[in-house]
């Protein structure tokens, strides 16, 4: 086999450098500080939802406190808030480094994650609004978020890949357990169950991810992973 020419070697080096640069930009799109803030907020909302269901239905015998439209509005508001915080952190980091916010790597990541995120979002909203299935909607959000992260597996750092697998495996296990226990026929504390699903995944997993990345960055001399 003929050896590569200096021109081909230079092109290969440029391709590798560009890939590494894109990995850095993609990593910043799901930065650890944003994951930590979003995870803590998700844990707070999840705990609030579980408490509202327990307080109003189990203790006082009142109407369910955290279901239907209220459940949907609160979690969508959290999504918007977490996205704004993430965008602010990205813009501040880019300004500090003198770099643009929108890069080729970020565009590539968006092309990978938007289809599963949009599909899961619309399906979850329809399940809540039209058939009042908030537990199933929560499971759809967990699974589609995991698929969105998994779609970046060819260029994402290992930390994102681990996060994707955690969402997918947990979402699949919870789905099997939920259907085995009665699934759509369950009518006990629906809001608490759905809140627990989202708190375990979007809350706890993001906090663990952020802590792991912070720990890795404090011990490594190279770029964050």
Q: How is this fold's topology laid out?
A:
Layout: H1 6-29, H2 32-59, H3 68-97, H4 104-131, H5 134-150, H6 158-180, H7 190-219
Report what the structure shows.
The chain has helices spanning 6-29, 32-59, 68-97, 104-131, 134-150, 158-180, 190-219. The protein is mostly helical and 225 residues long. Helix 2 (32-59) packs antiparallel against helix 3. It is elongated. Residues 221-225 have low confidence and may be disordered.
Give the uncertain stretches in residue-range form: 221-225
Helix fraction bin? over 70%
Instruction: Report, as a whole number of angstroms, the end-to-end distance.
Output: 36 Å
How many helical elements?
Answer: 7
The geometry reads as elongated
> C-alpha Rg, in Å?
20 Å
Sketch the major β-sheet: none
Helix-strand pattern, N to C?
HHHHHHH
The secondary-structure class comes to mainly alpha
The overall pLDDT average reads 79
Give a short synopsis of this structure:
The chain has 225 residues and is mostly helical. It has helices at residues 6-29, 32-59, 68-97, 104-131, 134-150, 158-180, 190-219.
Q: Which features characterize this protein?
A:
mainly alpha; 7 helices; 80% helix; disordered C terminus
